[in-house]
Amino acid sequence: MVAETATPTVSTPEAPSLLRQPRAVWAVAFACVIAFMGIGLVDPILPAISRSLDATPTQTSLLFTSYLVVTGLAMLVTSWVSSRLGAKRTLLAGLALIVVFAAAAGSGDTVEAVIGFRAGWGLGNAFFISTALATIVGAASGGSAAAIVLYEAALGLGIATGPLMGGLLGGVSWRGPFFGTAVLMAVGFLTIAVLLRGDTVPKGDPVPLSAPFAALRVPGLLVLSLIALFYNIGFFALLAYTPFPLGLDETGLGLVFFGWGLGLAVTSVFGAPLLTRRLPRTGVLWATLLLLAADLVAAGALIGSRPGLITCVIVGGLLLGVLNTVLTECVMEASDLPRSVASSAYSAVRFLGGAVAPPAASAIAVAVSPGAPLYAAAGSVAVAALIALAGRRVLRRVDDGPEPAEVEAEAITRGA
């Protein structure tokens, strides 16, 4: 009689689930949505702030300038701070600053006060976005792939819905979007404080304070930073100036810039990776810069046509999403520096470039004509395209191939 041999049962591991994540991951993802809402949140309420606080468009546009200047300067030290504090403390510090300064901005009685409080908001946002991706990947279950998809979804949702939230709450009062952000970020702070363990993401080696400054001596990184400097002038001229000539109420502006944000989110998350898997990054970069310059020229020519200008704003969002992600991917490949150091140096330069654009656009409109700021922005973007073409030899190494998913996700983050 032959004894039967039991056949061992081999269990097949379950595929990682996007939705089956620890509560800490959902807490950080929720905070990411709110943080990235801040990019377009104030757009629909710029004219309302101008009317309510008796401010000129140039003064009101400084809400972007103060936010971007402080964000850019803070980017130079975020890697130094987070490598010492750790991810959880850095996240909580950023969220706490956003809560305090968003609420203060909503309480401001002068445009100067709101401008100053927006600067504090920018400091908080810089600390938060510098560590959000690493935190989600560290806390996620089922590997990094599902975590990155969740993170990119949160980022895209925030970029798209920020202007919509700004328009809807701004229809009640221009203060509404600021108070709404403060409340939601306070909820995010509490959930992260309770649910996220402090050891989720290791601190890693301390980063020297001088590292981002030294990084700008690398030729490839310097070229990309100059491209971003001129490109961001076009980006923020489109974003911060067009609400005034559009002449819509808060809800109307919210819907227009919801379309802008949705286009930017879709091409950031899906369009840019698709293009760079098939074409050299440098080719995608200069070609899309030229398309954006053409879109800005069209916006200037159509400044008196509301449907025409709305179309240009939304097309601009599609192009901006591609450029933001591709530029940051190039930064990560342009040198052998740690990604956090390279992107901090680059982000500082590009944000400082963007800070110049909003008040300059408003001043040019008063001095020359309503369409002139968009023509000037087109010229700046064309300069960025020429730098990209002239610097192709220096940037040769960025065309080596597609990035891993985690690097792609960080590029989308830094680009936004």
TrEMBL record:
Membrane found in the keyword field: yes
Topology in membrane: Multi-pass membrane protein
Boundaries of every Major facilitator superfamily (MFS) profile domain copy: 24-396
InterPro entries: MFS, MFS_dom, MFS_trans_sf, Tet-R_TetA/multi-R_MdtG-like, YfmO-like
Record-linked SUPFAM superfamilies: MFS general substrate transporter
Pfam families (UniProt xref): MFS_1
Location of the protein in the cell: Cell membrane
Protein name: MFS transporter
Organism listed in the record: Nocardiopsis changdeensis
Lineage of producing organism: Bacteria, Bacillati, Actinomycetota, Actinomycetes, Streptosporangiales
